[in-house]
Structures are given as C-alpha cells and as structure tokens.
Design goal:
alpha+beta; 2 domains; four-stranded mixed sheet; three-stranded antiparallel sheet; 7 helices; globular
Length: 243
C-alpha cells in the first residue's frame, strides 16, 4: 500500500514517476475494489473474471489511491474528466495536480506534476508485426534507424520509438489524431530520446523533453514533459532497486 507520509504534492519543478507490478497486488482485490467509483465497479463487473478484471481493479485503485493521498480526499470520491481525445484530468482540482498513466499487461506507470502537460507510455517487448508497423507509421528517419539496427537491437529500437510517439501525443493531448509519420523520435540505443522533427517546425522540437526507462525486465517506458528543468522522483511498487 502507498504510505501517505511519502506523498506530498509535487513541487512546480518536480515530477513523480511510478512503476507498479500489478501482479504483486492481486491478493488485495477485495480491498482495492472499495477505492473505485461506482461506475468503475460496474465496469469491472462486466469484465471476465480473469486477469483483465484483476489488472483493471488494481491499476484504477493505485491511480485513485495516489491522487487521494496527494489531495487528502477519499479515493472513490475523485472525479475525472476527459478531453475530446481522451486525455484524463481531475475535476475541480484546485491544487494544479496533473497526471498521465499507461499500462501494458502487468505493468502500470504513472506520472504526476504541477500544471504540467505530461504523457507517458509503457509497452512490453514483443516481436509481433514490428516491421509492418514501422513501414506504416514511422517517419523516414525512424524507419531508417530501425532497419539499420542489428537484429538483436531492432526490438528495443522499435519500442524506444513507439513509446516515445505515444507519450508525445499524450503530452500534447492529441490522441491519435496526429499523423504518426509527421514527427520523428530519436530511438537509436546510443543517443538520448528526443523529438527530432515535427512538420519542419523547429520551435516544437524545443518544447518537449523525453525520459526513457525500463520499469522492469522486458518493458520499455517513455515520459514526455515540457522543456523545463525538473527533478524526477521515482517510486516502484514493489520496490525495484534497479530504477
């Protein structure tokens, strides 16, 4: 469980980043279900009573529990609103708390800040259909980085790029409304992640920073946030010394 004394609101130049292994909390389902809103509990009841149900309950409860500690409110009372492209925000938050989340299989990642446009994405490394996706959705420079990588490197290069693209779109609030090949993310293993092109708009490139990390073995995640100097504070549940 998250301890409230560990969670004061992020300061204006801080981002709190979480990596959570959902499978470690399946024995707490009954308690975690009480953190959900009535609508979320109804949604959970409609899910097959398997890993889909379990992951949904745990990831929604972690989100609500964390926000509840930050804002000193009951987790089940928190209300969310969504932009036209599906980006979530807290209804009537006077504390300026902003957040973004992503999950892939048993891994959940969350980012919190103060009045920041945040985007985060996590993906499990899989070989399925990578080349087809590259040819359809990657920019010319991104595809070149992928096809010039060694066979051993290709999967990581792919997910470096894909999580960067997803997180960037979420930070902007564009969802999938923006052409994925209209901008480029640096994905090569020896270079830091960054936006390298956007419809020829150099100003856009300087507006964002990228932070890439591995929340656990076999997963890659990318955080995108406005181009300011920030301090990242990482939490992992259960604790992961490698982060």
């Amino acid at each position: 469980m998250i301890q409230s004394h560990d969670l004061s609101l992020p300061r204006s130049n801080h981002i709190h980043l979480y990596a959570i292994n959902l499978s470690s909390y399946l024995t707490e389902l009954k308690e975690r279900l009480t953190h959900l809103s009535g609508e979320e509990r109804k949604h959970a009841e409609r899910l097959p009573q398997n890993h889909l149900y379990q992951r949904y309950v745990v990831q929604r409860s972690f989100l609500r529990e964390t926000i509840g500690h930050y804002l000193k409110v009951n987790p089940q009372d928190i209300e969310f609103q969504y932009s036209k492209h599906g980006k979530p925000a807290i209804v009537a938050s006077t504390d300026g708390l902003s957040f973004n989340i992503s999950h892939s299989e048993d891994v959940l990642v969350m980012a919190f800040g103060q009045n920041l446009s945040l985007g985060i994405d996590v993906e499990k490394l899989k070989l399925k259909l990578l080349e087809k996706i590259v040819r359809r959705f990657f920019s010319k420079s991104e595809a070149q980085a992928y096809f010039s990588a060694t066979e051993i490197q290709k999967m990581e290069v792919f997910y470096n790029c894909w999580t960067g693209k997803e997180a960037y779109l979420k930070a902007r609030g564009d969802g999938i409304s923006l052409d994925l090949s209209s901008f480029s993310i640096e994905s090569r293993l020896h270079l830091p992640p960054q936006l390298t092109s956007f419809w020829g708009d150099d100003k856009e490139i300087s507006q964002w920073k990228f932070y890439r990390f591995k929340p656990c073995k076999g997963f890659i995640a990318t955080l995108v946030y406005p181009s300011i100097e920030v301090e990242l504070k990482l939490y992992s549940f259960p604790p992961n010394p490698a982060l």
